[in-house]
Design a protein that fits this description.
By secondary structure, this protein is an alpha+beta fold. 29% of the residues lie in helices and 25% in strands. The chain contains nine helices and 19 strands. The strands form six sheets. The protein has a six-stranded mixed β-sheet, with helices on one face. The protein has a four-stranded antiparallel β-sheet with strand order 12-14-10-15. Strands 4-5-19 form a three-stranded antiparallel β-sheet. Helix 1 packs antiparallel against helix 3, helix 3 packs across helix 9 and helix 7 packs across helix 9. The protein binds zinc ion.
């Protein structure tokens, strides 16, 4: 087994279902301390976070990752137990192999080789790990960034080892993410007997036209880096279960994935403008789960393109698709942030896996990126 496979095996064996870390961070810390890293544990409530840094000068390059994984789901559907990493046909199976213990194993081994060969590299290197990325993410990276910001410790370049790849490893790097804004809406009517509609007011009927407008609205047309903003309704609930009652209210949830053409305030006022065209009473509450961010072309993106070209022989595509990640908490500090990691086809699924060649290639790419930026 290669060092990356070894480390990945050890990490997957630890059942770190979010927000558990199950000793992953301690294991990594023990590997990095002898290489000259200083460790700072920054735990908040049930979440374990660690900040490991080598060197005090600028620029500061940071690998960002999470040690927690999503639950395995029904164990009997797995071809091998999710926390007993198993290799079949050159792929390692197990929960977290792709999301994202594979990325972590690849960057730790890349670091080991890089520091061995370049102990006097320029600038500094840091690792930030959290055990709460897959959960609500309120005590993880967001809190660690607050600590760093308070003492003016600035990350220049941040590489998130999340599974970004599509068809082959490193064919896609994420250079930004759409924003995500969630809404909970209650539309009020008057409950009554279906036989006496004149004595009631049906919130479902009332809302039907508004729903049409909300879901056909052209929010924007996107731009060079982002697809057009979209609104998706995720839940509609109304009714008492009885077939002869007009319900008194209707509850709805929807989410907008939005581009840098829009912001939270504009979206809220445009939604209000649609809803206010109608007579019904409503209440709406919002939760912003992340603003959009975009890393402009610069040192980090060039160094990454060059590294992928050298190791794989092809150019990656810069992309802003996919869900949110912890990169959203780093980007507002003005750091350049990208995501580059394994294939994402099996993440969060039964029989999650990583191709072992991909794992080695990723580790080589990460090492080249360090070479390009810090020597
Ligand atoms: Zn992940």
């Amino acid at each position: 087994m290669t060092p990356s496979q070894d480390l990945l095996t050890e990490l997957v064996k630890k059942e770190s279902v979010t927000p558990e870390d199950s000793g992953c961070q301690e294991m990594i810390t023990n590997k990095l301390i002898p290489l000259g890293f200083e460790a700072e544990q920054l735990d908040f409530e049930d979440t374990k976070n660690i900040w490991l840094r080598r060197g005090q000068t600028k620029p500061l390059f940071t690998f960002l990752g999470h040690t927690d994984v999503v639950p395995p789901g029904p164990l009997n559907e797995w071809n091998s137990p999710p926390f007993e990493p198993t290799v079949r046909e050159n792929k390692m199976y197990g929960r977290g192999t792709a999301d994202m213990k594979g990325g972590i194993a690849a960057f730790i081994t890349a670091l080991e080789r890089f520091i061995q060969n370049h102990p006097d590299h320029k600038g500094s290197i840091a690792i930030m790990l959290t055990s709460d990325e897959e959960g609500i993410a309120t005590n993880g990276v967001v809190k660690v960034v607050e600590v760093l910001e308070k003492r003016q410790e600035k990350i220049d370049w941040c590489l998130v080892g999340e599974p970004s790849s599509d068809q082959k490893v490193a064919d896609v790097i994420r250079v930004g993410r759409r924003g995500s804004l969630c809404a909970k809406l209650t539309v009020y009517g008057i409950q009554g007997h279906v036989a006496y509609p004149e004595l009631a007011c049906n919130p479902i009927h009332q809302f039907a036209k508004a729903l049409e407008l909300l879901t056909t609205e052209e929010w924007d047309q996107g731009n060079d880096y982002f697809p057009a903003t979209s609104l998706q309704v995720s839940n509609i609930n109304s009714g008492t279960g009885a077939e002869n009652i007009i319900p008194g209210h209707m509850d709805l949830q929807f989410n907008l994935r939005f581009s840098t053409e829009l912001n939270e305030t504009t979206i809220k006022s445009r939604v209000a403008a649609i809803l206010d065209q109608f007579d019904f009473k409503y209440e709406i509450s919002w939760r912003l789960s992340g603003n959009p961010f975009l890393t402009q072309p610069g040192e980090l993106i060039s160094a990454t393109h060059q590294a992928i070209q050298e190791v794989m022989g092809y150019e990656p595509k810069d992309d802003t698709g996919g869900g949110t990640s912890d990169g959203r908490f780093i980007a507002p500090t003005q750091a350049q942030v990208i995501e580059l990691g394994p294939l994402n086809e099996s993440i969060h699924k039964i029989n999650e896996h990583i191709d072992l060649n991909d794992l080695e290639n990723l580790s080589k790419i990460y090492e080249k990126i360090l070479l390009n930026l810090l020597t």
